[in-house]
Structure formats: structure tokens, C-alpha cells
Amino acid sequence: MSDDFEGDYDHSEAPIVWTGSAPPAEIIAQVRADIKAELVDLSKPSDLIFHTVFLTDDFHGPTVTLSGDPDTGGFTASYDEETEWTTLGGDE
What we know:
single chain; 92 residues; alpha+beta; four-stranded mixed beta sheet; 1 helix; disordered N terminus
């Protein structure tokens, strides 16, 4: 990245299409604040592969997972009340 690049993109008002039920309004506001703070270098929402928003300090607590949605130009999101961790390959 060049020194003169300024990551100042704000996609906090981009459309969010929820898979399953949308969470309460206060969680949506928290997700939009996270988008504004954390995705400043993303030139357009549809380019996002994935981003996880941990809603508490508990990494087993509620999360929202975002990905880019090329159909809307915004994000697709899923809300999980509990985070389930899995291993990739190897022994369990």
C-alpha cells in the first residue's frame, strides 16, 4: 500500500441482507459501527470475502458474519447467538 493511500471509505449505511432473522436494532447499530471503524480500506462492500463482528468480549458469545453481496452492492450477514468453533482437518 502506498503512503499516500487513505483508507477512508465508510460503508456503514450499505444495505445488509440478513440470512435468517435479523437481530435486534441495537445489534444492527453495533454492526454498522464496526463496519465504519474496521472496513475503512474496503473500496466496495461487494469485494468483502468475510468479516466477523464479535458482539461481546466472549469469543463463544454472539457474532455477526458479513460477506460482500454483489447483487445489492452491500453485505450479506448472519447472526449467531453463540459462536461455534470448528477445526479444519486434523484430529478432533
